[in-house]
Amino acid sequence: MKKKIGPLEIVLGLVLLFHAFLLIGLIFWALFNSFKSSDAFAMDPLFLSKEMLDGLATVGEPWFYPQNYANAFKGVIQYIKIDGVRYKVYLPEMFWNSILYSVGCAFFATLTPCLVAYVTSKYKSRFNAVVYGIVIFVMVTPVVGS
Question: What is the pTM for the complete model shown?
Answer without folding.
Answer: 0.49
